[in-house]
Amino acid sequence: MGTEGAAGAPAARRPWPGRSRRAAGAGAGSDAVVIGAGVNGLVAANLLADAGWDVVVCEAQAEPGGACRSSRLTAPGIGSDAGIGSGAGPSPGTDLSFTTDLFSAFHPFAAASPVLRGLALGEHGLRWRHAPTVLAHPLPDGRCAQLSTDLEETCASLADFAPADADAWQEQVALWRQVRAPLLDALLATPFPPVRAGARLLRALGAADALRFARFGVLPVRRFAAEEFAGDGAGLLLAGCALHTDLAPEAAGSALIGWLLAMLGQDVGFPVPEGGAGNLTAALVRRLRARGGELRTGTPVAAVTVRAGRADGVRLADGSALPARHAVIADVDAVSLYRRLVAPEHLPPRLLADLDRFHWDSATFKVNWALAGPIPWSDPRVARAGTVHLGGTMDDLTVLASELARDLVPAQPFVVLGQMTTADPSRSPAGTESAWAYFHLPQRPRGHAGTAGARLRATAAVTGRPDGHGRPDEHDVAVLLERLERRIEAYAPGFTALVLGRDVQSPARLESMDRVLHGGALGGGTAALHQQLVFRPVPGLGRPETPVPGLYLASMSAHPGGGVHGGPGAMAARVALGAAGPTGAARRRALAATHRMLYSTPARSSMPAGPAEPG
């Protein structure tokens, strides 16, 4: 059954006064210009509109949403030769339409985020839908770890691996319930440092347990699983969730990332917006327009304009200017903002040197399928899960992570698969399935693992790199597609016979559809500890403010990073409002002094920059 994303009654909001103020002649331009209509940009725009600001959102693509969009995959003219019409599926010759999510699909962060819940998007048409179970991780030996919002069902699954793990999992759920509210507030809703939310978290845990929770926060998931569980099942659920990012089982911090996603799944599930991920975006757009905000699609921004040392608007690709009285909010990746949109004379050289070390997360290869029927899993338990992890044992996950670290395409990739009709029956006709799957590969792969050093065919002419390393070309795409479908066939014999149509999203195509997804990177930069908190996107304050007053970074490249939760957008909006408030002048002076301290000295020659990559 579906549930609405907002819990409880939203806080009272005063009527939006911006339209009458603008009509009264408050001056040219708007209070704020938002670059990019992804979830973070739309969240920022909504919060600024709630505060009475005139807001204009500029989106380069023809539709809003960024990495939260849906599309239709049509299988025209199919009939009996495709195997349809003999059972519960559609009649022969029927044209079928399947809804597929182009990027993000399952949204545990969105359902739990204090930012998005506070926007009461259920009032604007958002409805959540759930699969019977949240997650399944089948193994070749017939065992299967399952995650369900029914705690007893999850525990029973883990007890199949080790009886003691049912109680061990319940202990983790009890810890989650203890820290849930202050932790989510600290991570997603409060600009860094989260002093009040941090104090609430400390009170919830107590000093002794807070110290142990801090240790847990930097543990690798392999070590955490070995400490807390006797069997393999729980560790596979946690490590698989961590691998939604680019964190290997041995990576510091992977335990917390995996635990957070798994606990969200246990708590709110991995819900999907009814009718497609684009309906989450549509609810944000409807809410913004109801408050007088303006959205302009097909309107690429060419530059952030700076006058007297302060961002004062943007220049559009057609040459026209769009002034902003108070703020420019950038829902774009950090490299694009600082290398393309802001002229270098307005930025400290030290920041640009730090940006040379910016670490992107892994590239992604994704395929969407229109299927003639449900996926024929060998284990029927897998058929009930919205999300499926195909990755084998913990050791198998370590091997593939090692291959990625060596810039090799994994021989046996870790596959994340979504059964969308299982989660939301509106996604495709009765008896069929809309599905997708993806796996990670290096940003600059130099070959395929397990093939005696076979190299990708991409050339320097394609990639601009003299070493011949590069993103996959058409030949490689065919190889990757075959590898992905063979991986699924191993767990679901007969899968490929059900394929009516497929839509392949290579890394290059993902980037072309949303420039923030550099090389198919889904997280706006690595999730590793060296690029989190005060190190995101570069060493600094871990906050949305940039060295250019009035310009705020609001994308996944900013703290708290990737995921559909609205955190970076909310934080950017809140600090922009604070800067325009009664204490704004003092804040700006303190911030300028801090930025001078951080960026005024030249870069040390003993800390060479990493290989630069295009933004």
Automatic annotation (TrEMBL):
One Pfam family in the UniProt entry: DAO
UniProt cross-references to InterPro entries, sorted A to Z: FAD-dep_OxRdtase, FAD/NAD-bd_sf
Region (Disordered): 1-24
FAD dependent oxidoreductase domain span: 31-330
Chain coiled-coil ranges: none
UniProt-recorded name of the protein: Phytoene dehydrogenase-related protein
The organism's taxonomic lineage, starting at the top: Bacteria, Bacillati, Actinomycetota, Actinomycetes, Frankiales
